[in-house]
Amino acid sequence: MVPWRQANIHVLSHGLHYASCVFEGERVYNGTIFKLTEHSERLQASARILGFDLPYTVAEIDEASRAVVAANGIGDGYVRPVAWRGSEMMGVSAQATRINVAIATWPWPSYFDPEARKKGIALKTSPWRRPAPDTAPVHSKAAGLYMICTMSKHAAENEGFHDALMLDYRGQVAEATGANIFLAIEGRLHTPVPDCFLDGITRRTVIELAKARGLEVVERVIRPEEFAQAAEVFLTGTAAEVTPVGRIDDYRFTPGRVTEMLSEDYAALVRRPQVAAAAAE
Known about the structure:
Distance between the termini: 22 Å
CATH superfamily of the largest domain: D-amino Acid Aminotransferase, subunit A, domain 2
Helix content: 25-40%
Number of helices: 8
Number of strands: 14
Order of helices and strands: HEEEHHEEHEHEEEEHEEEEHH
Strand content: 25-35%
Shape: globular
Number of domains: 2
C-alpha cells in the first residue's frame, strides 16, 4: 500500500512517452468489485496484445484489488488497475523495461450528471474515427487509444454536449468515448458489432439481461442515419452503467420503458447479494 500522494512514476516511463500502457475500469458496489475476474483477465489480455506480460496472475490481481478497496474503505466507488512499461530503457524499442502494475480506488458517483441522465444525455458526432483493426491494437484497453476520445469529449463538452459519438473508420456507428451504444428499434435492440472497439463487459451483461427479458438483440452494422428510426438510445459501460441518450446531433430520443427496464435490471444485478458473493470468490 502506498499513500495517494506518494504513488509516483518516473518521468521517463515508457508508458508516458510511447503509450505502452493498459488499464481497466471497475465499479465497486457495497464493497464488492463487480465482475472483478473478468476485468483482471482483460487486463492481462490487453497487455499481451501490446507485447508484454504482467508479472502477476489473475488471482493475484484480484486479491490485490480487493485489498486496495478494503484498505480505503470503499463502499461504492471505482477501481483503476493500470500496467505500463517503466523507465529502464528509453526509445521506441523497450525490450528491457520493467512491467509495472498499480491499482487505485476512489469513491465515484454517477459518471454523467444525474439530472441529465433523467432526460437523456446529448452526444455530438466526433470528426475523429475509431481506427481499423490493422492500424491499432483495437481489442486492447490501451491508453493510447483514448487520446482521440479525450479530444472528442472535450470538443463536444465545449459545445454544450455531454459526450461524443465515435464512428469507425468506415463511417459506421461505433460507440461513445467510453461506452458502448444500443438502439431500440421496433421492439428490438440493435448494437454495433465490436470489430474495431472493445466488446465491453457491461455491454455483454446488458445483452444477457435483455435476452432474459425476451428482447431480441441484433449485433450488426449500424449507419448514423438509422438513428432516425430509433425510439430509444442508451449507452452501457462500467462508468456509465446504463445511461439514456436524449440527443445525437439533430436526432432526438425520449428515454422509454426499454432503457428504464434494463437500467433497473442492471442496478439490481450489481447489488444482488449472490452476485457479490460469487465475485468475491
